Amino acid sequence: MAKKSAIEKNNRRRQLVDRFAAKRAELKAIAKNESLELEERFAARLKLAELPRNGSKTRIRNRCEVTGRPRAYYRKLGISRIAIRDLGSKGLVPGLLKSSW
């Protein structure tokens, strides 16, 4: 099991991303618009830099829903390889057969 603090930190990041998503998208659109003046685009970049860093979507870490493990994460299922193995052994993942010999 991952540290509770790491899991909570990631959850707070997700909330910040949701809160600032529209503002970030608006400022990015202004900054990338070639038809606007250079000063206006530069001002948009400065405002974008003032937003919280954890409000960026790239700061979110994919974590296992069961254990909180940050590595070996399967996006399709939302859990780690170890959790898949445990749940597969118990027969809780439909269509998964754990081989054993």
How would you describe this protein?
By secondary structure, this protein is mainly alpha-helical. The chain has 2 domains: 1-61, Helix Hairpins (Orthogonal Bundle); 62-94, Irregular (30s Ribosomal Protein S14, Chain N). Helices cover 50% and strands 4% of the residues. It contains 3 helices and 2 strands. It has a two-stranded antiparallel sheet with strand order 1-2. A hairpin with a 4-residue loop joins strand 1 and strand 2 (79-80). The mean pLDDT is 92.
Average residue-wise pLDDT: 92
Give helix and strand order, one letter per element, not per position.
Answer: HHEEH
CATH top level assignment of the largest domain: Mainly Alpha
User: What overall form do the CA principal axes indicate?
Assistant: elongated
Helix content: 40-55%
CATH architecture name of the largest domain? Orthogonal Bundle
Count of domains: 2
Major sheet, described briefly? 2 strands, antiparallel
Strand content range: under 5%
Distance between the termini: 28 Å
Helix count equals 3
| Structural class category | mainly alpha
Features:
two-stranded antiparallel sheet; 101 residues; Helix Hairpins; rRNA-binding; RNA-binding; Ribosomal_uS14; 30s Ribosomal Protein S14, Chain N; mainly alpha; ribosomal protein; elongated
